[in-house]
Amino acid sequence: MGEQFIGPRGTNDLFPPETQKWVFVEEIIRRKAESFGFQEIRTPIFEHTELFSRGIGEGTDIAAKEMYTFIDKGGRSITLRPELTAPAVRAYLQNFPMPGTRIQDGRKILQGSPPFVKWCYFGPAFRYERPQSGRYRQFHQFGVEAIGSKHPDLDIEVIQFALQVFKSFFLENLEVKLNSIGCSSCRPSYREVLRKHFYDHLEQLCEDCKTHRYEKNPLRILDCKSQKCAPFILGSPIPIDYLCEECKTHFNAVQHRLKELQVPYSLDPRLVRGLDYYTKTVFEVISGSLGAQNSVCGGGRYDDLIETLGGPSVPAVGFAAGMERLMLLIQDNLPGFKKAPLLYAVPLGEKAEDFMVPLIFRLREEAEMKKIRLHIERDYQGKNLSAQLKEASRLRADFAVILGENELNEKKLILKNLNTRKQEDLPLNSIENSQENLKNISNQILEKITVFLEEIKTFEKKFDPVLELKEKINHGK
RNA sequence: GUGGGUGUAGCUCAACUGGUUAGAGCAUCGGACUGUGGCUCCGAGGGUUGAGGGUUCAAGUCCCUUCACUCACCCCA
């Protein structure tokens, strides 16, 4: 087989019809984002390493061992983004002017309200992990961030947006998990309570919990799935019992709204998330049909992140969802995509080509001006008539334009409807490829085609993608 | 990083307990049909059996190493 290049581990190539599905799905998400007022942003795929190590926390698995980091030619440490929230915050701080600040106890205190933005994004992210179903080294996320307000209704709007997106794809059997992990004022004391709880059993905990988590971030012990830790986690104190007044009111407000809006959710006191920047509300949407990597989307509040990254204290909330995982869930439900009707041009011989090439060019322009969606293709391998028509059939072409020696001599051109197998001659005034002549012929062809297309159109109304999708869902399971 | 499963033609898979020249379907290309397509028939090309080493008279098959894919742990989207 020789030596062949294959793509790096954990990366994927996308081809039609997959690419069409992605475009379709992204477009629906964009429309949904528009109605929520989340505006699309684009930030670089790489950033200074420091942004991530500080942003998501030195101790986290992501920062500690999953980052694609390299030194560039200027000696800077650069990292391919493993997530998009930290870059969004960086972009926010860099581009949106703050009101005046005063320094108090080494912290920047805002004199007025910070700029408020509601953003959404799409794009690739990179983590060095062993790939498996729903997990890749280059994967794609979409998500939203609302920066500049601590209003609990924004937590709701973010969750609602995620659910609305999933709903537009008729996804069922999704579960919303919710928790609150407190803030910088109540978490330290809770942390101590946790340490005390686990202290007596320290020797019986798993390696990771014993050595790292207990010291660095005892909350993450709650998230540990090891058999060893399970019995001690069961009886451990949970974050919501130790929330400060502010966090408690916030969490109550969030839950109140969720109930009011009849959003089904379940409290999960062990949901703590793997990134250090979360505060207060955290949530996750999981699916039972994804295998081990069952989380479709995860997010929450990050009221301290902007300050961690060198800005003033600005509250924010957001989530990120995995495109690959979303596609896994919905791709069987997605409809086939209507292609533009195909016109296959069949020039036989050099003279015919000399006329056909400018004609094709002109046809494309005329079709566009008349807003006729038409795909025009031809043969480039000098095949004979039979073979070219065979190719046209293989490509499911709807029409063929045939031009050979005979036609040139008789000053005509054959337009064949490949569905009905009927063909007719279109007279040529001349075989000069003057613009006027080409335009004339183009319009003749397009006129004939339009008639056929009208017939097809009424037929295709049954195949409206959304209707078809709905039907599938209703009939299936 | 750790464990399980799997690697045979472009794709999907055969080849009994080790036994001649590794087969089939689909796909591709050509011909029947020197200018009218989807069908049919005939034919052709395509393989260092993932790679490297070992055992054996003999290895696709057994052993070791390595690589890739895949699922799971871990972690997360």
Topology summary:
Elements: H1 18-36, E1 39-40, E2 46-48, H2 49-55, H3 61-65, E3 68-71, E4 77-80, H4 85-95, E5 101-104, E6 107-110, E7 117-126, E8 138-147, H5 152-168, E9 174-180, H6 187-199, H7 207-216, H8 230-234, H9 245-260, E10 266-267, E11 279-287, E12 295-301, H10 305-308, E13 316-322, H11 323-330, E14 342-347, H12 350-369, E15 375-378, H13 385-394, E16 399-403, H14 405-409, E17 412-417, E18 423-427, H15 435-460, H16 465-475
Parallel strand pairs: 1-7, 9-10, 14-15, 14-16
Antiparallel strand pairs: 2-4, 3-4, 5-6, 7-8, 8-13, 9-11, 11-12, 12-13, 16-17, 17-18
Helix pairs in contact: 1-5, 5-9, 12-15
The protein binds one RNA strand of 77 nucleotides through helix 3, strand 8, strand 12, strand 13 and helix 11.
Average pLDDT works out at 89
- Measured between the Cα atoms of the first and last residue, the distance is 44 Å
Shape descriptor: elongated
Strand content: 15-25%
Largest sheet: 8 strands, mixed
Q: What order do the strands of the largest sheet run in, or round the barrel if closed?
A: 1-7-8-13-12-11-9-10
**Tally of alpha and pi helices:** 16
Low-pLDDT ranges: 472-477
